[in-house]
Description:
Structural class: alpha+beta
Order of helices and strands: EEEEEEEHHEHEHEEEEEE
Strand order of the largest sheet: 1-4-7-2-15
Distance between the termini: 29 Å
Number of helices: 4
Number of strands: 15
Radius of gyration: 20 Å
Helix content: 10-25%
Largest sheet: 5 strands, antiparallel
Oligomer: single chain
Amino acid sequence: MARLFIIIVFTSFSNxxxxxxxxxxxxxxxxxxxxxxxxxxxxxxxxxxxxIEKVQTVRGITFSKQPDTVFTKGDNVYAEYYLSxxxxxxxxVITISFIMDLYQKAFCCLTExxxxxxxxxxxxxxxxxESDDPIIKAVASKLKTSTVLKTIERTYxxxxxxxxxxxxxxxxxxxxxxxxxxxxxxxxADLFVALxxxxxxxxxxxxxYTASSDNSANHNWAEVYVxxxxxxxxxxxxxxxxxxxxxxxxxxNVRNDDLGSFYxxxxxxxxxxxxxxxxxxxxxx
Length: 285
């Protein structure tokens, strides 16, 4: 019988401005690791959902296999597994089960807050977010209006109409997504973030999962920082800015994380294959 290692975390929000009822969810993240031959040793690093004030609370985590180490960097939580003697005859399966409360922070329900944040880094260009590119800047200037909220809305509509959804195995970046007019949720998020930053609006990409049946396990969306409201969720790959469902589980707000995106693995020996799937036991209860 698999050994279970359980962590229960309880967090209460002290900010009385935020009294939204939580959506409760249960789900499994299942990692399947298979060697194409013989792999003597390997490391699997997973990014886990963590507590984010006014966004989500982790009520419980159960591991089918206890991580060798769990650590944090910035807002991210990482679990590492050191695996040995992997072979093509047996798949190593690691299941991590979550119970969480989700809160909605989107344009459908803006709530004033005293939240403050140093947004300097979220105004700068970076890999995949070419907000200083002349083409991106020219497009952004045409979307700018007299108010931040209206500019965000126009940027969202432009991004929705500019890109046709096409699965892209490797990230294109904002500029190439604009030029090719195609991409998946990553390209939608990158272009939206780049255009916002070009107009002086702090924005960042988010990695995580959603409860929708039409999505794979991994999903990307965006957040913008709005004075009085703090960080607000925007999903440019969805067809409504103000009607987002409260179904988002966030794991990272780091676009170019050197520790990995969703998960990272390294190995010695024959090639390793890793598949991740999400099993929604009870998404809303």
